[in-house]
Amino acid sequence: MALVAGIDSSTQSCKVVVCDAETGALVRSGSAPHPEGTEVHPDAWWEALQAAIAAAGGLDDVAAVAVGGQQHGMVCLDEAGEVVRPALLWNDTRSARAALDLIDELGGPQAWVDAVGLVPVASFTVTKLRWLRDHEPDSARRTAAVCLPHDWLTWKLAGGTSLDTLVTDRGDASGTGYWSPLTEDYRRDLLELGLGHDVVLPRVLGPAESGLSLPSGAPLGAGTGDNAAAALGLGAVSGDVVVSIGTSGVACAVADQPVGDVTGAVAGFADATGRYLPLVATLNAARVLDAAARMLGVTHAELSDLALAAPAGAGGMALVPYLEGERTPNKPEATGAIHGLRLETSTPAYLARAAVEGMICGLADAVDAVRALGTPIERIILVGGAARSAAVREIASAVLGLPVTVPEPGEYVARGAARQAAWVLTGAAEPPAWPLEGVVETRVDPTPQVRERYAAVREMTAPRPEPA
Ligand SMILES: Nc1ncnc2c1ncn2[C@@H]1O[C@H](COP(=O)(O)OP(=O)(O)O)[C@@H](O)[C@H]1O
Ligand SMILES: O=C(CO)[C@@H](O)[C@H](O)COP(=O)(O)O
Question: Where is the Carbohydrate kinase FGGY N-terminal domain (predicted)?
Answer without folding.
Answer: 4-209
